[in-house]
Amino acid sequence: MRLQGASLFSIYSPGGIVDLELARTADQVQKYLLLWDNAVIKWNITIDFFFIIAYTWLLYAWLRWIKAYLQSIIRQQINQWLTKAVILVGVLDMLENSLMLFTIKGLYNTLSLEATYWFAVSKFALAGITLTYILLNSIFIALSKK
């Protein structure tokens, strides 16, 4: 996706497509739509739908694998909550992408831009928490096997 969307990165949009995800105003959106080739944006978002399926499955499977090694009730409950949260991450990402497809067609308003922004922020936050949990627990599991 990064290779395909390489033209979306510039000094005016250092975050590439993420800049559009986090654009909260019509002025910000217009800046990116003027800078970028609409076909590149659309293709980048379309590819992301497949990536969503892959990363959601991977995170879900990794959490299920970790669950087998957990002895603490609290860590088991966190794992169970995060297993559900990972599904929510995928749903939020799909909603965000759907709204961005409308946005690049010029079909947006303040509410849709705010929704896109908050879907993205929530997705990134939950994914970050999940990845931190997975990393820490994977380290604990690896160390406990020695």
- Beta-strand share of residues: under 5%
Biggest pleated sheet: none
Cα radius of gyration in angstroms? 18 Å
Backbone structural class: mainly alpha
Please explain how this structure is put together.
With 146 residues, the chain is mainly alpha-helical. The chain has five helices and no strands. Helix 4 packs antiparallel against helix 5. The mean pLDDT is 95.
Outline:
The chain is built from 5 helices and no strands.
Q: Any chance you could write out the topology, listing elements then pairs?
A:
Blueprint: H1 17-21, H2 26-35, H3 38-67, H4 73-104, H5 110-144
List its traits.
single chain, elongated, 77% helix, 5 helices
